[in-house]
Amino acid sequence: MQSIEKLPNGLDLIQDDDFFKLGQDSILLSDFAKPRKFANVLDLGAGVGTLSFLCWRADLKITGLELQDGAVQIFNKSIEHNKLDNIKAIQGDLKYIRNYFSHGSIDYVVCNPPYFKSGSGKVKALDAHALARMDGEATIEDVAVATSYVLKSGGKCAMVFRPERLITLITALERVRLTPKRLRFVHQTSEKNPSAVLIECRKGGSSDGLIVEPPLIINNADGTFTEEYLKIYNK
To answer: Please, what are the domains in the chain?
Structure first.
């Protein structure tokens, strides 16, 4: 069944029960990502276009690359619904990124990559939802290689990941000259361990100069949402 979700920036996102839906991580990543004005942006593993629409600005040129044809069809429906001419969806496999993009053609990449290793037991079956969370179709290394290939020298990428696999992610990124420059941990409360980490890298950047930003806290001690979290959601 399909439904329409109103995003914090006012755009409508068409969703489908057969594909991964709008989640907190995508909203937090879109707030964390900072593409420059008039940037050429690529959403890798775009699904139905959630990150593409969350990151949308009138000055940007955004392309979403997604493996599953059904998700791309829904993505295109949202583009038509919102009457946008600076965003497009491409059906394709990021492991063959050279078939769709020229080397160094992108200024900024956003990606919500697979969190869990294939066979980890975290995901039960390789349906559309599983593909969005497990690296059975594309590994973290595949994502890093594709990102590095499309980015210009000095270009940037932003991703959201699980803290327990942060070393795996950073290792894959640094192998292809993507150097972490900003890092922010997300905590459900100030007393709990982080549940997610936001990371921004620069292609060809020096290994010095990493900024670890103050943690993003979701809930106050009384269970209410924090002021910053509500601001991100525009509530």
So the answer is: 2-232 (3.40.50.150)
